[in-house]
Amino acid sequence: MPKPILAPVYNASPTRIVEYLHCYNSDEFYHERKNTAWKQKREFRDDISENGERRLLKAIDWFYYLTPKQKINNIKDDRSFNYKLAMLTFTLPCSQIHDDLYIKKYLLNGIMSRLREKYKIENYIWKAEKTQKGNIHFHLLVDKWINYKDINYNWNSLLREHGYIQQYRQNQLDFHKFGFKLRTELLSSWDQSEQYTAYKKGMQTNWSFPEGTSHIKSLRNIKNVREYIKKYLCKKTSKNDTIITTVQCSNTPNSTTTNSQYLSTSEIGQNQKEVSKTAIRGNIWHVSQSLSKIENPYFESSQELSDDLEKFRRYYPSKFVDSDFYSIYIIGFDDKKLNQFPYLKQKILQGLVPVKEKYFKQYQLSLY
Fold first, then answer.
1. Please, what's the b/e burial string for 267-294 (b: 16 or more CB within 10 A of its CB; e: otherwise)?
2. Residues with Cβ < 8 Å from 2, sequence gap 6 or more?
3. Confidence check: pLDDT of 39 > 70
4. According to the model, what pLDDT value does residue 257 have?
């Protein structure tokens, strides 16, 4: 049997190059590491794991790098602007009245189905979070321009189908039963005149169209898009969150389950376990297949490559991070500094060919 050999290899992503030692001629070494890395799937999750965060950041990096700029015309002022990605946020207008799995199956999947049908959304990343009060909400990263009024109408229609608009209406009618009532706890971000305007509009529409349930944030004016997206999608919850009792139930609602038939966790009253108020049942993030299948360009060491990387360390020491197990060269595929290292640039460009061919084939298919 050949003797195992350790040799440096390089893994390139759109924002950095990672150097590490790879063990050749050792199937046992590979299987041992693979088996020890396996972990039991958790039903409730507070935060994204370290491995999950790395995978999520990888998808974010590729998503931003591979998305072509689109020119969008603003009808209001007859001006155009370049557009790549947008962050959509979906919230509930009242306290959550269903299990997390129910919300994801009927509301999140529902809005995704409508986006696929009307806007041909195929490439996306979503992340679920809980507020301090325990309400689930979603951040969705997409590569298409979407009309705000359209997305708000579609999300509210789904909320109405599952009883959330009705509950919101009743809450507002109870709160304002003696006329307009000021929410003093919100004055720092929502002044009295704005609250009164919202109250009048709510009364005119019978509290049927809450506008704050969905939000769209264009990323075209964000300088560091990666860090901005990371702040939302990889946010850690506070360890001081209140511990509450919830229900561990393995039954997932099927397509024929009605709201009254599918009980909330507080209604079942058995198989209880303690989880934090911000814990989410089931998956807390998901990446579209087009992004999850991307593999970073990978290349082996050579004298020319070693020379370029040694020169990089001398030129840009602050962009080099060294550790016992790996080294990181912080340089992006679009960075002009890459022109100073011709062999490194050539290896990256060669590695990008199959990635782009596969991704843009899927991207073109999503347009039809």
1. eeeeeeeebbbbbbbbebbbbbebbeeb
2. 25
3. no
4. 36
Residue 328: closest CA among 1, 20, 5: 20
Task: Band the pLDDT of 197: cuts 50, 70, 90.
Answer: very high
Q: Which two tokens stand for residue 264?
A: 């909330």
Residues 316, 17 contacting (CB under 8 angstroms): no
Q: Torsion over CA of 171, 174, 177 and 179, rounded to 10 degrees?
A: -30
Q: What angle do CA 100, 152, 196 make, to 5 degrees?
A: 105
Res 28 pLDDT > 60:
no
The secondary structure of 263-277, three-state, reads CCHHHHCCCEEEEEC
Q: How far apart are the first and last CA of the chain?
A: 52
Q: Is 319 exposed, middle or buried (0-12, 13-18, 19+ CB in 10 A)?
A: middle
Give the separation between CA 210 and CA 153, rounded to whole angstroms: 9
Residue 83, SS3 per DSSP:
strand
Residue 182's Cα: distance from chain center in Å?
Answer: 35
Structure tokens that stand for 257 in this block: 């389950």
CA 288 to chain centre: 10
d(CA 183, CA 186): 6
